[in-house]
Design a protein that fits this description.
Blueprint: H1 4-18, E1 23-28, E2 34-35, H2 39-46, E3 51-57, E4 60-65, E5 69-74, E6 79-84, E7 94-100, E8 105-110, E9 116-121, H3 129-132, H4 145-152, H5 159-164, H6 174-184, H7 192-196, H8 199-219, E10 227-230, E11 236-237, E12 264-268, E13 271-275
Parallel strand pairs: 2-9, 6-10
Antiparallel strand pairs: 1-7, 3-4, 4-5, 5-9, 6-8, 7-8, 10-11, 12-13
Helix pairs in contact: 1-8, 6-8
The chain binds a DNA duplex (16 and 16 nucleotides) through residues 1-3, 59, 74-78, 110-115, 130, 155-157, 161, 164-166, 173-175, 269-272.
DNA sequence: AAGAAGTCCTGGGCGC
DNA sequence: TGCGCCCAGGACTTCT
């Protein structure tokens, strides 16, 4: 669920809260969530380190710590953070607790346990295969129409599947892939290489990806869905977004906002794809 | 070797 | 009321 815009929102909000704070202790409630080292080592390495910066790469949240360590978090489907300044009990979905100086606590929560956390030396991040394979950041200057065209060329997969491939363009998930394709008026079933054959289509897709993500980031200024704040009274400030801002995702049967034809839902590689059969070709 | 399929995970919704 | 099935989907591994 959290795609680039949601992760971006969590990173920005989290950064404002924990940057500069020292980690005084760690409690791992679910050991399997910690990747690549033992829980003992994980806790020992974190204790005493200061969170110097919070940033994003693809859908990964990176907390750069003092002494060259980086805490890498991927929320996958249901991961999130709960930040509390009081010593309130955390929800049963809490998997890892970070105790911060001053008594605040940051909990990593995850209902379905698909998310992961790993601690790596910052300069060794690119020795991690999954990390190295990550594609271009769609909102960066290195993402160009030409680069997109080169990636599309020769790929016989459906454009929807292409957009979900994190080794090509990072950050899009099932929701924003559908939204970007609707905005570009491209059928999700169209082959990637056939998009590449038309300059106009490549440009439309390029612009759509960026606009879709930019708008989604702006729309979340009210607060990230995957970061919850609990105050001293135990009341939760869980900033809610406005109701479904999506044009096609989750709107099967509703009229297309462009042409009025009913939105369709199909299955592509086991995933739902929402699109307008009339104006997306 | 690209790309499709299978797998993991849990709670909610639905049909019977 | 309760059981079982399906669904949500990110990104891996496995298979073709």
């Amino acid at each position: 669920m959290p795609e680039l815009p949601e992760v971006e929102a969590v990173v920005n909000a989290l950064g404002g809260i924990v940057r500069g704070k020292r980690i005084t202790g760690v409690r791992v409630l679910r050991p399997q969530t910690i990747q690549s080292m033992s829980v003992t080592r994980f806790c020992r390495l974190l204790r005493g380190r200061v969170i110097e910066r919070v940033r994003r790469r693809a859908k990964f949240i990176l907390l750069d710590l003092s002494d060259g360590w980086t805490l890498v978090v991927h929320l996958r489907m249901t991961g999130g953070f709960v930040y509390a300044e009081s010593r309130r009990p955390f929800p049963p979905t809490a998997r890892v607790l970070f105790l911060l100086e001053g008594g605040a606590r940051l909990a990593y929560t995850d209902i379905r346990n698909l998310g992961l956390i790993r601690l790596v030396r910052t300069e060794r991040l690119d020795r991690w295969a999954e990390w190295r394979r990550l594609g271009v950041e769609p909102l960066s200057r290195t993402f160009t129409v030409r680069r997109l065209e080169e990636m599309l060329r020769g790929s016989r997969r459906a454009i929807k599947a292409f957009l979900l491939d994190q080794t090509k363009v990072v950050g899009l998930g099932n929701i924003y892939a559908a939204e970007a394709l609707h905005r570009a008026r491209l059928s999700p079933m169209r082959r990637a290489e056939s998009v590449a054959r038309s300059r106009a289509r490549v440009v439309a897709l390029y612009e759509s990806i960026r606009e879709t993500l930019r708008e989604a980031i702006a729309a979340q200024s009210t607060g990230p869905l995957h970061l919850e704040f609990v105050n001293a009274q135990g009341q939760s400030h869980h900033p809610r977004r406005a109701p479904s801002p999506f044009r096609v995702y989750g709107r099967e049967g509703e009229p297309c906002p462009v042409c009025g034809a009913p939105i369709r839902r199909i299955k592509q590689h086991g995933r739902s794809t929402y699109y307008c059969a009339r104006c997306q070709t």
